[in-house]
Every structure is written in structure tokens, then in C-alpha cells.
Specification:
The complex is a heterodimer. By secondary structure, chain A is an alpha+beta fold. Chain A has four domains: about 150 residues, Jelly Rolls; about 120 residues, CBS-domain, CATH 3.10.580; about 150 residues, 2-Layer Sandwich (Beta Polymerase, domain 2), CATH 3.30.460; about 140 residues, Four Helix Bundle (Hemerythrin (Met), subunit A) (Up-down Bundle), CATH 1.20.120. The longest helix of chain A has 29 residues. Chain A is globular and about 85 Å long. Chain B has a single domain, classed as 2-Layer Sandwich (Nucleotidyltransferase, domain 5). Chain B is about 45% helix and about 15% strand. Chain B has a five-stranded mixed sheet, sandwiched between helices. In chain B, strand 4, helix 5 and strand 5 form a beta-alpha-beta unit. In chain B, helix 6 packs parallel to helix 8. The chains are: A alpha+beta, B alpha/beta. At the A-B interface, helix 2, strand 1 and strand 8 of A face strand 3 and helix 8 of B.
Chain lengths: ~650, ~240
């Protein structure tokens, strides 16, 4: 029986009630929901159902190469790794209903590296290795999933995010532009019998990167690009007098000219190609290149940045805020990661702050004392979302305490002016008064140095809280060197002060990720926040606090959480695999939070970080749970490191 | 002429092919020192026209196999039997087998031969096994003049024996709830058989923990438990 017959056969027995029942179960979970019915039936028919009592080991490193593929039908499986110096094994992952394991070991034909143990009474569907391989070779979605595991799921999440965001993009937005409005000139094309030499000549004269080969009916038969030419030249046997038809890529990608720029971008990204033929009624009408699309995006980014920098009034700056919101929408639509988006938002916020300072200097008058504008907290970490408030300060130089007082006297009114102008532009005034207009935060370099030293030396709860804000430190406007020297001093002092580090570690353990001992999310039990959890305080803070502490303790001066984790990974302070897992977890929680903010913005609601996990789909819930678990692991490693 | 035909019980002669298949049926599995892990268990669930073991008939057979302490989903048995003069009774509301499905069913003699062939050398497992045991015994006797010698294990007995924490649970539904076994389609022969089989997997795992290793161990423990229960009831 060949493979195909086998699958048809499977289709017939698929009418059996129990097979149907289990197929129905599998259809609730990725990647099975993407698989063909015949393949699913085949899978179930070749499956066994096994039971593991809570505590039973399922797969162990000493078992040798893995022989089965497991799908959890019911229950919970825990991955355990023993860390030296730790009595309790570390739970490295949890696998719940509908999830499968062990992919890497099966594909690598090796033993598992992690002990898989039933955390509760569990039923698993298993198929043996040969059947796994057959399925792997037959079903595309299954192969995709097996090869890329959770990252293929993340891609699905991104696709969903893109879809949601693109649905809300206004018609004026450029990626909704019809492709026919993008093509300026007649397409460069030639008949199939044209020699390669002549075809390339035609491309050269027109200054384009591609030529479309068309048949007598003007339908595109193939495409030839500069990349193809490069490959051709590299081939010694190539004869440029041969016909272009012998070297073209047949059946080029095509879209109708009424399709949108977004369609083209998606098609290009998906197929890794740089050119798309526009075909109406079977006839070639134009070609869109990757460059056409990207120039379109750059205009938006660059143009917006330039407009902000040159805005003639605070009023204008305020109006431009809505453009930033739209840009975030479109970036989500392009599948940008949360890290990229927060960086872009911060960039625009920086432009806004700089312009506000310049305009304030004009309106208020320049006191003639050079100063640097500092920012702290999320702005300092370059992690602002649309929902942001002010955390800033001023640094100037003064030779003496008396001079400092005199300078402060003259700078404070300007600081107040700037703070108010920023508030007008949408940066909420800081409730804790962490603003440059506060005399305690409008300081000379020496005063800042003293202030920071005090924070490090005396670890009162209030000082620790201040440390967690001020040591996410960045210069937005003005001279950078002075402040950076101050911060270098901070790093030196922290590096030599283990007591301070330990207190910071204790602080970093305060916000517990909202997952329980087993699998469910821990949500508020009552009140207005019933059934919700806080994505910022409970989800992001553990990562932010952990990364800050480790970075400060190891002399790393960058303040962005992702960059901190990256550098900790490079310096091997963190195990590379752990660091990657933390980065993914952190980014995912941030993405969920941003999507929520965008939605609140559209619904005209006030921004909130409270999330009801039940409103997420199955896939998001699963990844969110995993992300929180990574936060928990980071905290556990801090506790171990600092003997807490 | 069959002297019993006036009773309305069909005792047609078997065709030579059927007789040959009947003779070739494998022997039953004795309750010997075969390890539980090596034993073939066939979990059976019969849907019948009613609860009277002397009068009602088998409408459908569902069976799931446990071997090596796992359920092989590729090897299941599912068959609706053709029964003459099938009357719709209130039990149709429970099992949901429409008269039309019965009319399309397989001739009972062939269906039962198929089933016994599928079962092979095995221990039968059922929930409230006495009922399925009796129904199958009568079916085989009436249709094939065959004496059923296979042994039955009753999950309704095993469960309270191995899991006293389950308390005074009685029904399949209750035990499913206790062990949190999900059954998508209750009162469908095959789905009930699968749910019972899942319970059986849990019970086999409990048996292993109690160091019951062979069929004989399990059997003697069951006898002991029955005596204890009798004594307890007697004392009350």
C-alpha cells in the first residue's frame, strides 16, 4: 500500500466514533487544527492512549533515544532539570492539555535532556517514532510545528496581531494603497526568445532590477532579476546568447493591480521574493518591487520624525500624537516585535521632548545655563508605551553649593514650563513628583552624585524604590558626558556593594508572576478588578527588576531591559538559553499589553494594565502562561544567586 | 426441523464457513500468573434493547483493547447488529440506536463471530460486567451454540477495591467524575468502552502500586475483597 492509499483508508475508518471523538479533541489545539482531516485520522488510528499517575516519570535522559511522540490528552506534564546546589529540581517547562512533546529529541534522534514527569494524573496519546516520521513527511502544518515548535506558534500570534491591527487601519493609510497607484512606468518586458544579453541590456537601460518575460498574449511566463543574473555569471558555462526563457524563473508571483500594498508586502515576505507582477485579465500591467513598498513605509517613519522635530508649536506637537498612535497600529500590522515598537515610541517621545525643550527655551527665554535633561523609569529604559507619564530631572554643572543654588533658582521656572508643556502633549504629570521642576531633581552633577551615593549606602525601602526608578537612567537632551560620568560612578559603587544588591534582589521578588502552583492564572478574587491580573506589575516587573539588578551589579550601563538581558547573555552572567527564554517571555507579555492599550484607545476607554486572561484565545493563554513561568524562573534564579 | 422453533428462538444451523470460524476461535485467557502488563484486556460495552438478560437482545458491541497497559486506538471494535422484529422501546432514548441502524446491521451470528475473533485470547473487562457477561453468553449460545468461557473483570468491583477513597460510588458516570475521565459520548457502545478502558488504565496503575503483578494476584485479591465486603454487609 502506498502512502496515499493508507491515508484514504484512514478516511474510511475515521467514521468510527472514538476516532472521531479524539479528532474532535485535537482540532481544538494547534497544530492539529491546521492539519488535513485524513492526516489527523491517520494519526489517531496509529495512536495509543497511555495513563501516567501523578509523579510517574514519562521520559528520562537515561532511557536512550526517544521512541514516541506524546500529545497530552488530559493532565499536566512537568519538565525537570536538576541544578547543582539545588535540592528541588527546577521545573523548566509545563505541558498542558493539547500540547505535545518531545520535539527536539525526536527530531534529533536522541534521548531527552529533561526528565518529563506527570505533575498530575494524565492521559497521553502517543505515536511511535516511525509513524511520527511518516506524519512529519506528509503533513506540512505538522512539519512546520515540529521544526519550529513554539516559535511557529508565536508566528501565528503575530499573524493574528497583524490581522487585527490591519483591520483597524484607516483607508488613508499607505499600506492600503492600491498597487496600481504605485506603479509609475510601463513594465520592462520581453518575449521568451530574447537573448539573455539583450534582456539584461534592456534592464540596464531602464535602470530596473527585473524583467518580465511575456508570451504573445502578454501574460507573464517568467521573471528574470539581478539576483538571477548574479547566479548566471557565477556559472562558468553560461552563454549570454541563449534565450532568456532558459534562465528565467517560470510562473512569477502575481497579484491583480487592485490588490493592496499590504497584500504585496505579505506575499513578498512569505515567498522571500522582491518582485511581484501585476496582472489584470491575464495581461501584465506592471511590476512592484520591494523597494517601492519600503520607500512607502520609510516616508511615514522619517516624515513623522522630521515633522515632530520641526513642529512650530506645542499645539502642533499635540496634534501629531495621534499620528504616533497610528504608526504603532501599522507597526503591529507589520508584525513588529514589542521591543521594536517600544523603541520606536520612545524615539518619537524623545523627538517630542527635545522639541518641547527647544520651544520652551524660545517661549520662556534661555536662562543661559547649560543643562542636560535626564529621564528615568520606563522612559529611561526606552520602554514607553502609549500610556506613559513623566519621570525626569535636570543636571547642570556648578563649582560650589552656592552656585548650584543660584543656577537652580533660574532653571526651575524653565523646568516647570517644560513639564507643563509635556503634559499638554500627553505625558501625564508624575504623581510622585519625579519631575525636573522638583527642586530635589534639578541638581548639579555633584549633587546628583551625592544623591545616588546615599541611595546605595542606605537601603531603606523608600531608597530602594527610588533606586529602581533613578538607575534606569538616560540623557534625552543636552550634554551627555557629564551625566554619563555620574552614572559610571553609580555602577562602580553598586558593583562593590553586595548588601545593596541583595536588598535590590529582595525587592525584585516582591511582584510575583500571576500563576499558581499548577496551571491556572492567579487573578483578583473580588472588587472592580475581579478576574483580572496586572500585565505590567505582575508580568513585566519581574523581568525589568531582575534585569536591572543583574546589569547594575555587573557594570552594564545600558538601561533597556532587552539590551540588558542581551548583554547579560553575552557576558554569560545568564545562561544563553535562559536569557533567550526571558527575552521571549518579556516581549510576549509586552505585546499582549500593547494590543490591549491599542484596543482601549480605539474604544475610547482609559488605559489599564488589568487583563482578564479568559478574553485571550487558547494559544495566547498558553504562551502567556509560559511567559509568566519564565518570570518566575528568573526570580528563582535571583533567589538562588543572592541566597534569599 | 428445529424442535424449538415454536419458541421463536432462532437456532438456524451454522454454515460450514461459520462453523469453521467457530472452531478456530482461540482459547480464553486463564487467570494465571501472566503479568498484568502482558495480558490482553478487551474492554467491552454492549448496548441492548433493554435490561432483561433473559429476553433483551444485543443491539451493538463496542470494544477497546488494552495491551502492555496502553490502549491501541487503531484496534477497536464497533458493530451494530441486525435483529429481526426489533421493537422500539424506551431504551432507544438511552442508547440512541435508531431502528433504521438496526435494520442496516450485521447478521448477529457473523457479528459475534467477528467479535470473538477480534477478542482472541483475552480477559474481558466491563463496567458492571455481570450484565455484559450474561448478555454475551446468551448471545453466543443462541446464535452460535457456543459456550463463552472467557473470564470477566468488573471495573465496578476493581474501582472501589483499589481506590477506597472513591467511597460509595456506583455508576460509570460517578467513577468517571471521580477520576476526571472525559467521555464525549456517553451511551454510545464504543465511547463507553473507551471511557471504561481509561478507568481500567488508571486501575492497572493503582494495581501496580499495590504490587499486584499477575492476573492470579488480581484475582485472589478480588476474592479476598469480596469476602471482606460480604462479611461487612453481614455484620451490619
Amino acid at each position: 500500500m502506498n502512502e496515499n492509499d493508507k491515508f484514504t483508508q484512514a478516511g474510511k475508518t475515521a467514521v468510527m466514533q472514538n476516532i472521531q471523538g479524539i479528532i474532535g479533541f485535537l482540532l481544538g489545539y494547534p497544530p492539529f487544527n491546521l492539519m488535513e482531516q485524513g492526516h489527523l485520522a491517520w494519526l489517531v488510528e496509529h495512536a495509543q492512549l497511555r495513563f501516567f499517575a501523578a509523579g510517574d516519570p514519562i521520559l528520562q535522559p537515561q532511557d536512550g533515544p526517544v521512541q514516541h511522540f506524546f500529545i497530552v490528552k488530559q493532565g499536566l506534564i512537568r519538565g525537570e532539570r536538576v541544578i547543582s546546589g539545588n535540592d528541588e529540581p527546577d521545573t523548566t517547562f509545563e505541558i498542558g492539555t493539547g500540547e505535545c512533546f518531545p520535539l527536539a529529541a525526536l527530531l534529533g534522534e536522541r534521548a531527552t535532556r529533561t526528565l518529563h514527569r506527570a505533575a498530575e494524573d494524565s492521559f497521553c496519546l502517543t505515536i511511535n517514532r516511525d509513524d511520527f516520521v511518516t506524519l512529519f513527511s506528509q503533513s506540512m502544518p505538522f512539519r512546520d510545528f515540529a521544526l519550529r515548535g513554539v516559535s511557529s506558534l508565536l508566528e501565528q500570534v503575530n499573524q493574528q496581531a497583524q490581522k487585527q491591527a490591519s483591520e483597524t487601519l484607516g483607508a488613508h493609510y499607505s499600506l492600503d494603497t492600491r498597487l496600481d497607484s504605485l506603479i509609475g512606468r510601463e513594465p520592462i518586458c520581453c518575449p521568451p526568445e530574447t537573448s539573455i544579453r539583450n534582456a539584461v541590456k534592456q534592464m540596464h537601460e531602464a535602470g530596473v532590477g527585473s524583467i518580465v518575460v511575456i508570451d504573445p498574449q502578454q501574460a507573464p511566463a517568467g521573471i528574470f532579476t539581478l539576483r538571477d543574473l548574479r547566479a548566471l555569471i557565477a556559472n562558468d558555462a553560461a552563454d549570454l546568447n541563449n534565450s532568456i526563457a532558459t534562465v528565467m524563473t517560470p510562473q512569477p508571483a502575481a497579484l491583480p493591480s487592485s490588490a493592496s500594498a499590504f497584500d504585496a508586502a505579505i506575499a513578498m515576505t512569505r515567498r522571500h521574493i522582491a518582485h511581484i507582477c501585476l496582472v489584470d485579465d491575464g495581461k501584465l500591467v506592471g511590476v512592484v518591487s520591494e523597494r517601492d513598498l519600503f520607500s512607502l513605509q520609510r516616508v511615514n517613519l522619517v516624515h513623522l520624525a522630521r515633522t515632530l522635530r520641526q513642529a512650530e508649536s506645542i499645539q502642533r506637537l499635540r496634534d501629531l500624537r495621534s499620528d504616533i498612535h497610528q504608526l504603532v497600529d501599522s507597526m503591529l500590522a507589520h508584525g513588529a516585535s514589542s521591543g521594536q515598537i517600544t523603541r520606536i515610541i520612545t524615539l518619537f517621545n524623545d523627538h517630542t521632548v527635545c522639541r518641547v525643550i527647544e520651544l520652551s527655551l524660545e517661549e520662556h527665554g534661555d536662562p543661559g545655563i547649560p543643562f542636560s535633561w535626564l529621564c528615568f523609569g520606563s522612559e529611561g529604559r526606552q520602554e514607553q508605551t502609549l500610556h506613559t507619564d513623566q519621570d525626569n530631572g535636570m543636571l547642570f554643572s556648578a563649582a560650589s553649593g552656592a552656585e548650584a543654588d543660584a543656577h537652580r533658582e533660574r532653571l526651575l521656572p524653565l523646568a516647570r514650563h517644560i513639564n507643563n508643556a509635556l503634559a499638554e502633549c500627553g505625558f501625564t504629570l508624575c504623581k510622585g513628583n519625579i519631575m525636573a521642576s522638583n527642586p530635589d531633581l534639578c541638581l548639579s552633577a555633584q549633587e546628583w552624585r551625592d544623591k545616588f551615593s546615599r541611595l546605595i549606602r542606605s537601603t531603606t525601602p523608600a531608597n530602594l524604590l527610588s533606586s529602581s526608578i533613578y538607575f534606569d537612567f538616560r540623557v534625552v537632551w543636552g550634554d551627555k558626558r557629564g551625566p554619563e560620568q555620574v552614572f559610571a560612578e553609580v555602577l562602580r559603587q553598586i558593583g562593590g556593594n553586595t548588601l545593596f544588591q541583595q536588598q535590590m534582589a529582595q525587592n525584585a521578588l516582591l511582584n510575583r508572576p500571576p500563576i499558581g502552583r499548577l496551571r491556572d492564572f492567579v487573578v483578583a478574587r473580588s472588587g472592580a478588578e475581579k478576574d483580572t491580573l496586572d500585565t505590567k506589575v505582575q508580568g513585566l516587573s519581574p523581568f525589568v527588576d531582575g534585569a536591572r539588578l543583574l546589569a547594575l551589579a555587573n557594570g552594564i550601563s545600558v538601561t533597556n531591559t532587552l539590551e540588558r538581558l542581551q548583554q547579560l547573555r553575552e557576558r554569560r552572567v545568564l545562561d544563553p538559553q535562559d536569557a533567550d527564554a526571558y527575552i521571549e517571555g518579556y516581549q510576549f507579555i509586552q505585546l499582549v499589553r500593547m494590543q490591549q492599550h491599542q484596543q482601549q484607545e480605539r474604544d475610547g476607554k482609559t488605559f489599564s494594565n488589568r487583563l482578564d486572561p479568559d478574553t485571550l484565545n487558547q494559544l495566547d493563554r498558553r504562551i502567556l502562561r509560559e511567559s509568566f513561568r519564565q518570570a518566575k524562573r528568573l526570580q528563582a534564579s535571583l533567589a538562588l544567586r543572592y541566597n534569599l | 426441523m428445529n424442535p424449538l422453533s415454536w419458541l421463536g428462538i432462532r437456532r438456524r444451523g451454522l454454515s460450514p464457513a461459520q462453523q469453521q470460524r467457530l472452531d478456530a476461535l482461540p482459547a480464553p485467557q486463564p487467570l494465571d500468573d501472566t503479568p498484568l502488563d502482558d495480558c490482553r484486556f478487551v474492554v467491552v460495552d454492549l448496548e441492548t434493547s433493554g435490561l432483561n438478560v433473559n429476553r433483551d437482545r444485543i443491539l451493538s458491541v463496542g470494544a477497546v483493547v488494552i495491551e502492555n497497559s496502553l490502549i491501541d486506538l487503531g484496534s477497536q471494535y464497533e458493530c451494530t447488529l441486525y435483529q429481526e422484529n426489533h421493537r422500539v422501546t424506551e431504551s432507544v432514548l438511552i442508547h440512541g440506536i435508531a431502528p433504521s441502524a438496526v435494520a442496516d446491521g450485521v447478521a448477529p451470528a457473523d457479528a459475534l463471530l467477528d467479535f470473538m475473533d477480534f477478542a482472541g485470547t483475552c480477559i474481558f473487562v466491563a463496567f458492571h460486567a455481570a450484565f455484559d457477561h450474561r448478555m454475551l453468553q446468551r448471545g453466543l449460545r443462541d446464535e452460535l451454540r457456543h459456550r463463552l468461557r472467557h473470564r470477566f473483570v468488573d471495573v465496578a468491583e476493581l474501582a472501589p477495591m483499589l481506590c477506597p477513597a472513591g467511597g460509595r460510588r456506583q455508576s460509570l458516570d460517578e467513577w468517571q467524575q471521580h477520576f476526571k475521565v472525559v467521555n464525549q459520548q456517553r451511551h454510545h457502545a464504543a465511547a463507553d468502552a473507551l471511557a471504561t478502558a481509561e478507568l481500567m488504565l488508571i486501575l492497572l496503575s493503582l494495581a501496580r502500586r499495590e504490587k499486584l503483578e499477575t492476573l492470579a494476584d488480581l484475582d485472589s485479591r478480588l476474592r479476598h475483597w469480596r469476602r471482606l465486603r460480604q462479611a461487612r454487609i453481614g455484620a451490619m
